[in-house]
Amino acid sequence: MEQENGDSKSKMEDYEVIEQIGKGSFGASFLVLHKTENKKYVLKKIRLSTQPEKLKRTAHSAMDSIAKLHHPYIVQYKDAWLDKGSCICIVTHYYEGGDISDMIRKARGAYFPEQVF
């Protein structure tokens, strides 16, 4: 995970926010468009100011660990950075069909083949 300083442009400038797609107690998730790749991603912004000191200290190592995960059933990591010292930004791949919980909810109790995943 990279830390941005005040002299360089923010990595946020590489993305255009399309819409907010989620919100929780730690922060919010946004559907974004990478301007040069012309590809959609999910950007999660986690506010550090509201987090306990222990989480702040472990945030960098946690993001490094997430970056190393490669598994077909885990959303693929793209990038992460500390934005202006106040938010951790995590970019992951976006899947048009939603996540597994969305698929289960839409199925309304009907079974569907495992290959769908």
What can you tell me about this protein's structure?
With 117 residues, this protein is α+β, with helices and mostly antiparallel strands. The protein has one domain: Phosphorylase Kinase, domain 1 (2-Layer Sandwich). 20% of the residues lie in helices and 36% in strands. The protein has helices at 53-67, 100-107; strands spanning 2-3, 15-23, 27-34, 39-47, 77-83, 87-93. A six-stranded mixed β-sheet has the order 1-5-6-4-3-2, with helices on one face. Strand 3 (27-34) and strand 4 form a beta hairpin. The longest helix is centred in the middle third of the chain and has 15 residues, at 53-67. Keywords: ATP-binding, Kinase, Nucleotide-binding, Transferase. InterPro entries: Kinase-like_dom_sf (IPR011009), NEK_Ser/Thr_kinase (IPR050660), Prot_kinase_dom (IPR000719). This is Protein kinase domain-containing protein.
What's this model, at a glance?
With 117 residues, the chain is an alpha+beta fold.
Task: List its traits.
117 residues; Phosphorylase Kinase, domain 1; 6 strands
Number of strands: 6
Give helix % range.
10-25%
Number of domains: 1
Report the top-level CATH class.
Alpha Beta
CATH homologous superfamily (4th level) name = Phosphorylase Kinase, domain 1
Task: Provide the β-strand percentage band.
Answer: 35-45%
Derived from helix and strand composition plus strand pairing, the structural class reads alpha+beta
Query: Largest sheet at a glance?
Result: 6 strands, mixed
Q: Give the overall shape, derived from the CA principal axes.
A: globular
- Determine the N-to-C terminus distance: 29 Å
Pfam family, one: Pkinase
Domain Protein kinase: 15-117
Protein name: Protein kinase domain-containing protein
Keywords: ATP-binding, Kinase, Nucleotide-binding, Transferase
